[in-house]
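Need a sequence for this fold. Nothing fancy.
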């Protein structure tokens, strides 16, 4: 029921959004010709070519897919769907303006504003109207759900079910071997051996079995109980102790395969992230080349040694690469470091006078945009670690290498070097578990504030 509902709603909203994009473009052209605002021009100037309609639909659909706007459409509207749509619309609008600047500079900027506002209003009203109608319909007939299991895994599923519009969590059913449930007794409505009668008594539509024993005979027994009842049965095995982050299910000629190392980022997210990395890195390197020359001169005049500091780091999936920085220490100073979880020091005597300024302003990391351009790093992600420290990581800590390592990250904008080193893994795992392109944008904006204040940089 959930899968089919998600597919139907996703397709509905995708088609509706495409229609709203076309209508908004057309109406923006009519408004621009009707209102006496902006520079005067012939009406033909404000007419929109057919190709631009197609390109705009592709831009919005691509960005919306990247931001997963059309997934989880059955969840509570105002807390997820609407917020995610607005965020994606902002990114699509920026992309649209960039496309216009490159291929269609004659397009009126006022007309662009009309279009962006109109499209946002139409898509918002459509979602609010749908939510209002859907809420009224589901209020009359909720799908009752019961969860077989009383452990933490069952509790997590229950919290998700409780947030989904149209579903009602009736309660939990104890496995026959559940001796120490984590749930309150008032949430448990019975035992697995009486599941059939519970389903009939509470008019259950969905039974979710949290399997923790993998006992086939036991599962067969539960399935046989429900075989004569009109109820949907789902199995939710708990692989949280084995899976890296997400668990993916694939179909191999009718045989289900469970992928325990499912990719954190979708292909579209990875492509978009890489495109932004290349664009921003090129822009920064082009704009700051005079600064590169000035810093290089200051380093050479301050102390003998090379301009750049090179060091081997661990990148995505454990691949080694050479990271570049402006040298901020005296030559061979890094050999005097005894790497511990708290090896950074606020007053380090090995740092040169110019190096202290570079670190305080984060200018020492400017050459890492070369690493970003070469694909060794991303703008946002966990900081690339030293091989000696990475070798001491536990299996859980090594999960931070499942995404591209970054120039800045959630740890850096949450305290930077003021936080103990051993805390950074928790922040990195939070970033990976909650990854989205919007989170990258938030981190980049917060990085500008952190760098400006110089917090934790030494």
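Here you go.
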């Amino acid at each position: 029921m959930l899968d089919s509902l998600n597919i139907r709603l996703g397709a509905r909203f995708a088609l509706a959004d495409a229609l709203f994009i076309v209508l908004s473009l057309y109406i923006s052209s009519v408004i621009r010709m009707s209102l006496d605002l902006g520079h005067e021009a012939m009406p033909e100037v404000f007419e929109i070519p057919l190709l631009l309609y197609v390109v705009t639909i592709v831009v919005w659909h691509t960005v919306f897919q990247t931001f997963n706007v059309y997934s989880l459409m059955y969840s509570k509207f105002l807390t997820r769907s609407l917020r995610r749509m607005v965020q994606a619309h902002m990114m699509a609008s920026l992309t649209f303006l960039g496309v216009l600047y490159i291929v269609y500079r004659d397009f009126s900027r006022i007309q662009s504003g009309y279009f962006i506002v109109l499209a946002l209003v139409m898509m918002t009203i459509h979602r609010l109207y749908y939510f209002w109608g859907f809420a009224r319909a589901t209020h009359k007939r909720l799908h009752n759900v019961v969860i077989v299991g009383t452990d933490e895994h069952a509790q997590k599923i229950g919290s998700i079910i409780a947030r989904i519009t149209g579903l009602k969590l009736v309660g939990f059913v104890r496995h026959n071997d559940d001796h120490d449930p984590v749930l309150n007794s008032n949430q448990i409505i019975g035992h697995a051996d009486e599941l059939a009668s519970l389903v009939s008594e509470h008019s259950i539509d969905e039974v979710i079995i949290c399997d923790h024993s993998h006992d086939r005979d036991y599962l067969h027994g539960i399935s046989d109980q429900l075989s004569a009842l009109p109820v949907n049965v789902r199995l939710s095995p708990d692989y949280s102790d084995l899976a890296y982050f997400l668990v993916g299910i694939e179909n191999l000629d009718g045989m289900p395969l469970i992928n325990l190392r499912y990719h954190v980022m979708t292909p579209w997210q990875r492509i978009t992230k890489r495109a932004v990395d290349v664009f921003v890195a090129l822009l920064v390197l082009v704009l700051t080349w005079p600064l590169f020359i000035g810093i290089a001169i200051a380093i050479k005049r301050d102390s003998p040694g090379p301009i750049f500091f090179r060091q081997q780091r661990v990148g995505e999936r454990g691949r080694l690469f050479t990271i570049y920085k402006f040298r901020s220490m005296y030559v061979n100073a890094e050999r005097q470091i005894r790497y511990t979880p708290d090896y950074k020091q606020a007053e380090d005597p090995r740092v040169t006078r110019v190096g202290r300024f570079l670190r305080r302003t984060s200018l020492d990391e400017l050459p890492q945009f070369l690493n970003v351009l070469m694909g060794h790093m991303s703008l946002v992600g966990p900081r690339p670690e030293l091989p000696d420290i990475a070798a001491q990581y536990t299996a859980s800590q090594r999960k931070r290498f499942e995404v591209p390592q970054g120039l800045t990250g959630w740890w850096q904008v949450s305290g930077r070097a003021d936080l103990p080193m051993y805390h950074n893994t928790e922040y990195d795992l939070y970033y990976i578990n909650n990854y989205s392109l919007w989170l990258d944008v938030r981190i980049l904006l917060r990085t500008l504030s952190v760098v400006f204040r110089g917090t934790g940089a030494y």
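For context: Residues 267-453 form one domain.
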